[in-house]
Design goal:
Blueprint (H helix, E strand, L loop, with lengths): L4 E6 L13 H7 L2 H7 L4 E6 L20 H20 L3 E6 L5 H8 L5 E6 L20 H5 L16 E11 L4 H9 L3 E4 H7 L1 H13 L5 E6 L21 H12 L6 E7 L10 H13 L6
Helix pairs in contact: 1-10, 3-4, 7-8, 8-9, 9-10
Pathway: Nitrogen metabolism; urea cycle; L-ornithine and urea from L-arginine: step 1/1
Keywords: Arginine metabolism, Hydrolase, Manganese, Metal-binding
GO biological process, one term: urea cycle
Length: 301
């Protein structure tokens, strides 16, 4: 029996210096997410948006640790963690709508409270900077490093997810890395699948390996879908677009592979970085909605 999906909005842009992603949850809902999931046979409940305080001039203010709005990010992620934890304990699948990618810290921490798990990270970026290595100070470039306790995050209990096993993490579709990120990732036990590897081997084989990595020896996995994983020609409404991303059909094929896994093994899922200000006729939010419904089991036949 398929589990109910609990939709949770996290309208935050603390993790980026570009405004607009805080409107992502509204844009995705406007694209008909709830109705499409219902039509696919999934029961849903939408708890609305979690409270996110607004800060005047937030795009200019940074903390001494070179991680902008880290305290505000912590507060939001702790709210997300509590809601996701309750969702998992209720036997439902938490579907987190971002917001910038820093929200993943809350989602994964909430989902790992039950037992250890893996993660498949669909992203153009590594998200593996730390406050001391980040060239921008934007926390949306740090969530994976934060969850795995790298650098200063090792002392931040709210960020570090001890139940996320590094050897069970796979990043899919990477095509741009900072120098320090590249070094840290090479030294880690994370499996990194670049777009070049997808070009060479084919997406189906790469995603199969990523899912195998995420589920090896654990009973659950998390899916983090950053919409900049896709090529900006089909997903223009993202904050940090990078050319050469996944095509429309590749993205759906990947999400369909996620859906082929045992329903009980999908611990949580999030879709992030939809920026309606930069979008064209809500195209990116529409695509996000389609991909989420594919990941949760929608079928043509």
């Amino acid at each position: 029996m398929q589990r109910t999906v609990r939709i949770i909005g996290a309208p935050t842009d603390y993790g980026t210096n570009r405004r607009g992603v805080d409107m992502g949850p509204s844009a995705i809902r406007y694209a008909g997410l709830g109705d499409r999931l219902d039509e696919s046979g999934r029961q849903t409940t939408d708890v609305g948006d979690l409270f996110v305080a607004r800060t005047a001039g937030q795009s200019q203010r940074a903390t001494d640790s070179n991680a902008r709005h880290l305290e505000e990010t912590r507060e939001v992620c702790e709210r997300i963690e509590a809601e996701v934890k309750d969702t998992v304990e209720s036997g439902e699948i938490p579907l987190l709508l971002g917001g910038d990618h820093s929200v993943a810290i809350g989602t994964v921490n909430g989902a790992t409270r039950e037992s250890p798990m893996g993660a498949v990270w669909f992203d153009a970026h590594g998200d593996f900077n730390t406050p001391s290595t980040s060239p921008s100070g934007n926390v949306h470039g740090m969530p994976l490093a934060g969850l795995l306790g790298y650098g200063e995050f090792g002392e931040m209990d709210w960020a570090r997810a001890d139940g996320l096993r590094e050897e069970n993490v796979a990043i899919v579709g990477v095509r741009t890395l900072d120098e320090h990120e590249r070094k840290l990732l090479r030294e880690s036990d994370i499996s990194v699948f670049t777009m070049s590897e997808i070009d060479t081997r084919g997406l189906t084989d790469v995603v199969a390996d990523a899912l195998a990595t995420a589920t090896d020896g654990v009973d659950g996995f998390h899916v983090s879908l950053d919409m900049d994983w896709l090529d900006p020609q089909i997903a223009p409404g993202v904050g940090t677009p990078v050319r050469g991303g996944a095509t429309y059909r590749e993205a759906h094929a990947a999400m369909e592979q996620v859906a082929e896994r045992d329903d009980a093994s999908l611990r949580s899922i999030e879709v992030v970085e939809v920026n309606p200000i930069l979008d064209e006729a809500n195209e990116t939010a529409e695509l996000a909605t389609e991909l989420v419904t594919s990941a949760l089991g929608k079928r043509i036949y």
